[in-house]
Specification:
Order of helices and strands: HHEHEEEH
Largest sheet: 4 strands, mixed
Distance between the termini: 108 Å
Radius of gyration: 47 Å
Oligomer: single chain
CATH architecture of the largest domain: 2-Layer Sandwich
Shape: rod-shaped
Strand order of the largest sheet: 2-1-3-4
CATH superfamily of the largest domain: ATP synthase, E subunit, C-terminal
Helix content: over 70%
Strand content: 5-15%
Structural class: alpha+beta
Number of strands: 4
Number of helices: 4
Length: about 200
């Protein structure tokens, strides 16, 4: 009888033990599941927050770079144009200081003839740089005879050199002053000036 009771008690104990183990397993599984879910939620939130912060940081970096690039290009362009203007100012200064000799007279003659080529009239008006008046008067007769026209010197203009040639009713005007000629070719000379100042790159 005692033995039978012992067996029954052992069976009951074994049953309760198994129940307790099963219950603990279930609770453990539930706890682990909740922990895993919580961990996953925290992890995903952290990743999303990190991505948002990284995206914001990248945006700020792009904006800062864009702002810097814009400022750099503006400053570079300003400096380049300053250098360009200095180059052309120096060129005009050198033209201004050219000796008004026979060689320069040939240049002036060519400038007047370029203007005459556009005229369809027997009278041609010429405005001349103050410093080139005497030289023009010296070649005026030669040009009149060569082209069968009469040249009237009308105004003295404030220029480093050259002439403005036009017909009497001023419907055709050819500005052959050095300032205007330089201005016309300035855009063509820009790449060359850039190459000399800043090299190939």
């Amino acid at each position: 009888m005692d033995e039978m009771l012992k067996n029954i008690i052992n069976q009951v104990l074994e049953h309760f033990r198994n129940e307790i183990i099963r219950e603990i397993d279930e609770k453990e599984k539930n706890i682990l599941f909740r922990l895993n879910s919580e961990y996953r939620r925290i992890y995903e939130e952290a990743v999303m927050r990190y991505k948002a912060e990284l995206s914001e940081l990248e945006k700020r970096v792009r904006e800062a770079r864009s702002d810097y690039d814009m400022k750099f290009r503006r400053e570079w362009s300003k400096r380049y144009n300053e250098y360009l203007e200095k180059v052309f100012d120096e060129a005009l200064a050198r033209i201004s200081s050219l000796k008004r000799d026979e060689k320069y007279g040939r240049i002036l003659e060519k400038l007047v003839e370029e203007g005459i080529a556009f005229m369809d009239t027997k009278v041609v008006h010429v405005d001349v740089s103050i410093r080139d008046v005497d030289l023009l008067m010296d070649i005026k007769g030669k040009l009149e005879e060569k082209h069968g026209i009469r040249i009237e010197v009308k105004r003295r203009i404030d220029s480093v050199g050259g002439v403005i040639v036009y017909n009497p009713d001023e419907t055709i005007i050819v500005d052959n002053t050095f300032e205007t000629r330089l201005k016309k070719i300035k855009h063509l000379l820009r790449p060359r000036v850039y190459k000399v100042l800043f090299g190939e790159n």
